[in-house]
Specification:
297 residues; Metallo-beta-lactamase, Chain A; 7-stranded mixed β-sheet; 6-stranded mixed β-sheet; 15 strands; globular
Length: 297
């Protein structure tokens, strides 16, 4: 199947073609014995592609026992409401602070629409998930998929309800957005409103670094070696990014002027990735830092 890549025995990466682009958003498929799991779902628009990948791998719908969501932002979990209808045995593992927004996604949809503006149609929608299909996580917990252990690790910062998932047997860490975007060998900051928090993000990077993972598995996008270096460098990117935005904000007469100056700054504009030609995502990440700074940080 096009876009489906085997990473090792029992683990695949599916390129969902997020926003109509290759190598921007992914869903991981884990299989051990007769059981399987998804790590992320992508947007609701990706659900048919995800189901097609399961079919291509010969994974029965009833065999998918877990859907692990790093967080509920639509590019990571927007498709879960559609998929739980098609995967009757799947339980959704999500942070307890995100669970209520899966049951009733109305506030989530409104927040995404405000954050992304005219790009909202690219994010699809979110359908409700029955409460009884959700297994909320507060503290670190371990789950099983067949013989594979999966540790859910709270990693707030990008969002307060963020989780990373770690496979102790292989040392693989599914990073969600906790370690940034990794596109074309470059790290990009992801600091959206309304809840980005620098201190908590750095603490989370330190926490997962202590696991000494052997490989990072980015939702955006794909596997990466040298995890220690990448986790350390992303912390440095975040510190620089917030410091840069703060310096411009402090010298500008208004936040609107600060935004204009930042978008015109070549150092800042360098963090608009190839899928963000209009720099709307870049502006959103700047706004996230401005909101963070506005909380008195």
């Amino acid at each position: 199947m096009k876009g489906l890549r085997k990473l090792r025995e029992g683990l695949w990466l599916l390129d969902t073609g997020q926003f109509g682009l290759p190598r921007l958003g992914g869903v991981y498929i884990l299989r051990s014995g007769d059981e399987a799991a998804l790590i992320e779902t992508g947007t609701s628009l990706a659900a048919p592609t995800v189901l097609g990948a399961l079919d291509a791998l010969g994974i029965a719908r009833e065999g998918v026992r877990k859907i692990f969501l790093t967080h509920i932002h639509l590019d990571h979990g927007g498709g879960v409401g559609v998929l739980v209808r098609e995967l009757p045995e799947a339980t959704v593992v999500v942070h307890e602070r995100g669970a209520k927004h899966l049951v009733d996604p109305s506030r989530l949809l409104a927040s995404v629409k405000e954050a992304v503006g005219e790009r909202f149609p690219l994010y699809g929608t979110a359908e409700p998930v029955p409460r009884e299909r959700i297994d909320p996580v507060g503290n670190e917990r371990t789950f099983r998929v067949g013989e594979e252990e999966v540790s859910a690790i709270p990693t707030p910062g990008h969002a307060p309800h963020h989780l990373c998932f770690y496979l102790p047997r292989t040392g693989e860490l599914f990073t969600g957005d906790a370690a940034g975007l990794y596109l074309g060998g470059k790290l990009y900051p992801t600091t959206p409103p309304p809840s980005f928090d620098l201190e908590r993000a750095v603490e989370s990077l330190q926490r997962v670094s202590l696991l000494r993972p052997r490989r990072l598995l980015y939702t955006h996008f794909g596997p990466a070696e040298e995890p220690g270096r990448l986790l350390r460098e992303y912390g440095e990117v975040l510190e620089w990014w917030v410091g840069k935005i703060k310096a411009v904000r402090d010298s500008a007469p208004s936040e609107e002027e600060a935004m204009e100056r930042l978008l015109a700054d070549p150092e800042v504009a360098a963090y608009a990735h190839d899928g963000d030609k209009d720099m709307e995502e870049l502006a959103m990440n700047i706004r996230g830092v401005l909101v963070y700074l506005g909380r008195g940080k």
